[in-house]
Amino acid sequence: MNPWILAIRPNTLPAAIGPLLVGNILALELEQFSWLIACTSMLCAILLQVAVNLANDYFDFKTGVDTEERLGPVRVTQAGLISPEKVRNAMVLSLVLALIVGSYLIFHGGWPIALLAVAAIGGALGYSAGPYPLASHGLGEVAAFVFFGLVAVVGSYFLQAGETSTAAWILGAAIGCLNAAIMLVNNTRDMTTDAKVGKQTLAVRIGEGQARVLYQTLVYLPFALIIGSFFLGFLPGAPVLLAGLSLVIARKLNSDFSVTSGEALNPLLGRTAKLTMIFSGLFSIGLFLV
After folding, report:
1. How far apart are CA 245 and CA 28, in angstroms?
2. How many domains does the chain have?
3. Which end of the chain is more exposed for a tag (fewer CB within 10 A), N or C?
């Protein structure tokens, strides 16, 4: 496989695509809805996700977190497939492109979007680098929940509507939980090697048993949120019913996660990302049909 494909890690892109899809489709019925805004925000989110992946690859190599004992998918810098300088430059290019694309969104959405842009770029760099790397202090799942859940859904809806909505916040929280679950799988797999190099991820801090409980919570809570919101009148029935079909996948994932450890968690990482995309896609189809 092309090493740049390995570096970009396309199996993680549903974490960016899913919430942007839901946020934009939620605003589809508005008179001012713009497909240009929808496509631009989606592209910006994908560029930021790529930048995060490259930053993680580069900084984890530079700080010694990635070693030959690594259990996860190949990291191109640690494996010597691409030089650290090239990975760093690609990361910077991705961030610059995201900023260029996002400048149109900032022009359209004003200062709230500008603040989100600064926070998003800071989060992309601060996940693995800086004086207080989020990933090394048990905040990786929190960052995923905030940026690839709340910020992504509420922000994309705000760009279209000029305001937020209760539905957007609910869906942001639901998808944020699923994306946090992706991060938790990654960190649970790497518990042993992370602990050796002093990387205190959430999984390292709480232990494998509690990580399994937390994973169960993260993959089931989105369904409780949307079903409860339907009964409270915040969400329509069709998208809730369709998204609810993916509960079958969530149950299988939870069952497999409860008995899997180490390198065997690698397939579960991609499958959890697919759950985010399927949940988001089904909900969006339901919104489109309403």
Report:
1. 23
2. 1
3. N
Q: Is the pLDDT of residue 72 over 80?
A: no
Nearest CA among 220, 221, 181 for reference residue 203: 181
Residue 52 lies in a domain: yes
- In this structure, the chain runs to a length of 290
DSSP string computed for 136-155? GGT-HHHHHHIIIIIIHHHH
Give the percent of the chain with pLDDT over 90: 61
pTM score? 0.91
Cβ atoms of residues 125 and 92 within 8 Å: no
Residue 69 pLDDT class (50, 70, 90 cuts): low
Q: Is residue 119 situated within a structural domain?
A: yes
CA 196 – CA 212 distance, rounded (Å): 21
State residue 58's pLDDT score.
Answer: 86
Handedness of CA 3, 4, 7, 10 (dihedral sign): negative
pLDDT of residue 71: 58
Domain presence at residue 8 = no
The continuous run of DSSP H or E covering 124 comes out as helix 111-126
How many whole angstroms separate alpha carbon 272 and alpha carbon 268?
6
Q: What is the predicted pLDDT for the residue at 42?
A: 93
Query: Considering just the CA atoms, what is the radius of gyration of the chain in Å?
Result: 18
Q: Is residue 7 part of a domain?
A: no
CA dist 77 and 80 (Å) reads: 5
Q: Containing domain of residue 38, as a range?
A: 18-289
Question: CA–CA separation, 289 vs 286, rounded Å?
Answer: 5
Q: Identify whether the C-beta of residue 219 lies closer than 8 Å to the C-beta of residue 253.
A: yes
Residue 166 contacts residue 234 (beta carbons within 8 Å): yes
